[in-house]
Amino acid sequence: MSEPTTDAPVLIAGAGPVGMTTALALHARGVESTILERDPEDRDRSGSRAIYVHGSTLRTLERIHPGLGTDLVDEGLVWPTRHTRWRGKQVFRRTYDSPGGSGDIPHFTSLPQVVTEEYMHEAVAEAGIDIHWEAEVDTVDSSSDGVTVETTDGREWNGEYLVGADGGGSQVRNEIGANFEGDQSENSFIIADIEDPDEDPLPLERLFHYDAPETDGRNVLLVPFEGGWRLDIQCFEDDDPEALTEDGRMREFVRDVMGEAYVDHITWVSTYKFLQVMADSFVDEHRRVLLAGEAAHLLAPFGARGMNSGIADADEAASAIAVAVDARTDAVARDEVELYAARREKAAEFNLNAAGQALEYLQGDDPVTVLRKEAAASLADHFESAGEWLDDAPYGPHGTPPIVSTGNY
Ligand SMILES: Cc1cc2nc3c(=O)[nH]c(=O)nc-3n(C[C@H](O)[C@H](O)[C@H](O)COP(=O)(O)OP(=O)(O)OC[C@H]3O[C@@H](n4cnc5c(N)ncnc54)[C@H](O)[C@@H]3O)c2cc1C
């Protein structure tokens, strides 16, 4: 066939945040990789995606590429106030003097995914890692000796390991015969990004409004990020999301929720039904192919676990592969990959459960939950803890992560 396409022992499908993090995490461990990306280099990655980056993610990025985590901190925004309303009335509001905590890396930061990816790109270039653009993975053949990938342009790529970080529609997942299992949110959600206007800025706070009068009783979540705001409106079950996102109606929503100053600053509107699924296996039968990020799991965004947990997958996949490529016995190499799968499948279950609980809480009609919400709202004037419960409940997770070895989930 064609001449050798790469000497790198590890192939990565996808130059999204998870693929790029995998490459950086391998490089930090002394293992070279090459990235195969379907899109052209001048692609447009704008759109409403991850804005909330957890402190653990920032620490991972800083550890594998010094300066990357702190660059994102410099670019991001740490909002100081949590605010919750119930049918037009404030039930909880708390402002923190030091919302990010002390130290170089805050508890979280908020910035558009497209900016996060730009910094990852720069880091990948600095590390001398190749991204092959317009190299769409078509077929994957693995054996106990390694992996052969064919891209749709007919080129063949050989490696010892392959990480499938090619997103929700992963061809790598299809090729290893793994399947998504799970379900989908009942209601649709409208997600819009709105740029900061020059005047009349809103206070920097994350607002959750239950049954907001401004949206005729739909729940509203408003989150600031550097340069703008994410507006999330939860549709009723019988809503037609397409009709609600027509230009005129969307402008009315933005005016009523955010004020006139924001109406001409809508940059992106989309509607979603969120999938809650994970692959039935994160590795192939020969333990040479590892799935990471959205190739392995898709989560509703409550709790912001999608990219954050994908970056944890990436770091752990790199850790497993770094040991496996130097292993002196096949059994040790297989064990490392199997341990990766065991850990990250557990983490995905935990994350799915957390996001699922948030979805159930938001859209379910379980009478006990409905009553608890109403009781908490009526007690919020007298007991701060009732308002705080309403403030915290829509986001997960509320339990302890299962991954004792790393604390990443
Ligand atoms: C509205 C919304 C809000 C969100 N908010 C958050 C948040 O606040 N925090 C958070 O952590 N997450 C959030 N997420 C989730 C986050 O955006 C995703 O989890 C993240 O983009 C997944 O990264 P990935 O690298 O796994 O996949 P992707 O970003 O999908 O990247 C996959 C890459 O693989 C490439 N590719 C696809 N097929 C092939 C192929 N056959 N061959 C080669 N390359 C291929 C694609 O072109 C792409 O570059 C949000 C998502 C949405 C929709």
TrEMBL record:
One of its GO terms (molecular function) is FAD binding. Gene3D superfamilies: 3.30.70.2450, FAD/NAD(P)-binding domain. GO terms for biological process: 3-(3-hydroxy)phenylpropionate catabolic process. Keywords: Oxidoreductase. It comes from the Archaea. Residues 8-328 form the FAD-binding domain. PANTHER family: 3-(3-HYDROXY-PHENYL)PROPIONATE/3-HYDROXYCINNAMIC ACID HYDROXYLASE (PTHR43476), FAD-BINDING MONOOXYGENASE (PTHR43476:SF3). This is 3-(3-hydroxy-phenyl)propionate hydroxylase. The lineage of its organism: Archaea, Methanobacteriati, Methanobacteriota, Stenosarchaea group, Halobacteria.
